[in-house]
Design brief:
The protein is α+β, with helices and mostly antiparallel strands. The protein has 4 helices and 13 strands. The chain starts with 32 loop residues before the first strand and ends in a 15-residue tail after the last strand.
Length: 220
């Protein structure tokens, strides 16, 4: 028997009712909304990051109206780069620039406490003057480098001994919480959590330690 776990509403169930206000004209109303600490959008509309909802065309269309489209993640790095650059080109054209972005490769570098992303695409912008850029570099503050280093260490211990001791990492990295959850099939799930940001990195391992000489027959 089906169990109702909560009440849900569809678009037909919700009606926005006008209310009296003292605004003289609808042109005086501002719908600007803060999306991040330093980014505002003109209207409070966002397209969800689903593969059937938002790619560059949707993001560009929403951007022209003043909203924001979030491009989904079910793409290769090259495809994601093309989608983002197409949206960027449209944004410059909306601002009155003549914009041209050539094709190029994308590189990602993991560094301590940051991720460096470089788009090696030549960009030409022209308005009153012409400006040329050979690449776009983006720095993301993220300590993925450290978490991947710990993951590699865990895998090395699993390979050698079939086990890894999580408390050793927490004694050294005080900002990280490292957990180990054993599954019924022998698989171990390691969860690395940043205590400050809440970011989570997970990996799974299933190790079998073979005694020295096990399975060897005859003399070689």
């Amino acid at each position: 028997m089906a169990r109702i776990i909560g009440r849900g509403f569809s678009f037909d169930d919700v009606l926005i009712v006008p209310k009296y206000n003292k605004v003289f004209s609808r042109k005086d109303v501002s719908l600007k909304t803060k999306v991040t600490r330093n980014h505002w959008i003109d209207i409070p509309l966002l397209a969800t990051n689903m593969d059937t909802i938002c790619e560059s065309k949707m993001a560009i269309a929403l951007g022209k109206l003043g909203g924001l489209g979030v491009i989904h993640r079910f793409l290769t790095i090259e495809e994601q780069s093309k989608e983002c650059l197409a949206s960027l080109e449209s944004k410059y054209k909306k601002a009155g620039y003549s914009a041209s972005i050539s094709e190029g490769n994308t590189s990602v570098e993991l560094l301590p406490k940051r991720i460096a992303v470089t788009f090696n695409n030549k960009i030409i912008l022209a308005k009153e003057n012409t400006e040329t850029y050979d690449k776009i570099s983006i720095i993301i503050n993220n300590n993925l480098y450290e978490r991947i280093g710990i993951a590699n260490s865990i895998i090395e211990w699993e390979t050698r001994l079939g086990e890894a001791e999580t408390t050793l990492y927490m004694n050294y990295y005080h900002d990280l919480k490292v957990e180990k959850k054993k599954q019924s099939d022998g698989t171990k799930i390691y969860i690395i959590t940043d205590r400050n940001t809440g970011d989570i990195f997970q990996l799974a391992s299933r190790s079998i330690v073979w005694p020295s000489g096990y399975g060897m027959e005859g003399t070689y």
